[in-house]
Amino acid sequence: MLQWSRVTDFVLRLSHRPGELARLSRQLRQADVEMIGMWGPVIGRASVGFHCIPENADQFRSFVRDAEMPVTEAPAFLINDNSQSGSFVSRLDSIASAGINIESIQSLTIGGSLTAVIWVNESDEKRLIEILDKS
């Protein structure tokens, strides 16, 4: 069965040096901020965007404000499909047929259960929701 929710993707800038992820994780734990997912590219020695999707967006906003961390945020869609029946592929076909461009995707399958985060243009969100709601 495919389930989905609208989430907030926060992007932080982390220095490219040892210990930055450990420092952030420790701060999140101390602030009791639970995360759905975190990932980020490592490119050269530059400061790079590190994505954080928290369970509670308002709590994360308070955390970054209190920690004085610059952050950007954008809506995203968290999709879980544990059916192994191809319902995610079917939804991708429907999204494409509707002319909605998926701007970015991150996905992972563990034990046959797929989880994906997708981003679309804000003007396509309403149509995407209609497609994701179809059983």
Mean pLDDT, all residues: 91
Strand order of the largest sheet: 2-3-1-4-6-5
Quickly give the structural class. Answer: alpha+beta
Assembly of the depicted chains = single chain
The span between the termini is: 9 Å
Number of domains: 2
Largest sheet: 6 strands, antiparallel
Strand content: 35-45%
Rg for CA atoms: 16 Å
What do you see in this structure?
- By secondary structure, this protein is an alpha+beta fold.
- The chain has 2 domains: 67 residues, VC0802-like, CATH 3.30.2130.10; 58 residues, Alpha-Beta Plaits.
- It is 30% helix and 39% strand.
- The chain contains 4 helices and 6 strands, in the order βαββαβαββα.
- The protein has a 6-stranded antiparallel beta sheet.
- A hairpin with an 8-residue loop joins strand 2 and strand 3.
- The longest helix is centred in the N-terminal third of the chain and has 11 residues.
- The model has no long low-confidence stretch (mean pLDDT 91).
